[in-house]
From TrEMBL:
Protein name: DUF3976 domain-containing protein
Species of provenance: Bacillus thuringiensis
Record key words, sorted: Membrane, Transmembrane, Transmembrane helix
Superkingdom of origin: Bacteria
Residues annotated as transmembrane: 46-66
Length: 68
């Protein structure tokens, strides 16, 4: 769980840096962002995102059933 939080934190920070920096630092931040998304951390983030979507659909279905 700690790796997931760290990966998400790194993803957000590098995304913000890639938007705000100019020149060579921006290219470095974009490279780091690409490395995070295509590496093992990206696979872990994708798996967590898929799990959260499935859990969200499950809970939405439960709430819908309670209202009907």
């Amino acid at each position: 769980m700690g790796y997931l939080i760290a990966a998400l934190f790194l993803l957000v920070i590098t995304f913000i840096l890639s938007l705000t920096l100019r020149g060579k630092p921006q290219e470095h931040a974009k490279g780091m962002l690409h490395e995070i998304l295509t590496g093992s951390l990206g696979k872990m983030l994708l798996g967590a995102l898929i799990a959260l979507v499935i859990i969200g659909i499950f809970f939405a279905g439960m709430i819908y059933d309670l209202n009907n």
